[in-house]
Amino acid sequence: MNRNLLRQVVIKTLPVMTGYVVLGFGFGILSENAGYGFWWVLAMSVFIYAGSMQYLMVSLLTSGASVISTALATLMVNARHLFYGISMIDRYKGAGAKKPYLIFALTDETYSLVCHGDTPEGVNPHLYYFLVSLFNQIYWIIGSVLGAIVGSAVTFNSAGIDFAMTALFVTVFVEQWLTAKNHIPAAAGVCITVVCLLIFGGDLFLIPSMILILAALSLGRPVFGKEIQS
Asked: Which span out of 26-35, 116-125, 134-143, 173-182 was modeled with the highest average pLDDT?
């Protein structure tokens, strides 16, 4: 590990940093306003680190949701990570002791950077993936802790803050659309998702859409070519 590698990791993760600090900040404020202070926020950002699920966790905790309800909600919200994991089997093969953390820290934005970024020349890919994942989590922790601190000192209306997570998803999609040469996979994903949303409704569309997207991309590999493999 050297300064040049760390500099490249910081540059690569800079867009995520700007988003995660803001999103984490919002999560910290919501948690503090709900009665869950600094230590709760820190623990959830270190041990859960699930972005949108952490936002939902605040509501689940305040409503007294059961363990079963919480588990089912977590499965529904994070079901997409099952498909992320399948696509990362080859990329994370041979990661050794780093693999458990790489699996744990595979958020949407980290997945985007790992899949669509080039590993610096002469650098162990697994070390690079590890640092990207670690830096992204550090950004989230910093933002959430700052939000909890500010939330404990300043009182204001936090309505609408949770929309920041949706905004980040849209930003990531637009960035990938602009940088990708082949837009067929993205267009297929959007079309399939819209159809599933109309058929299954807002509460149940996620898992069917992910299954169909995975099937479409797998069957379309000869057509999509390197775009899916990159």
From this structure: 134-143
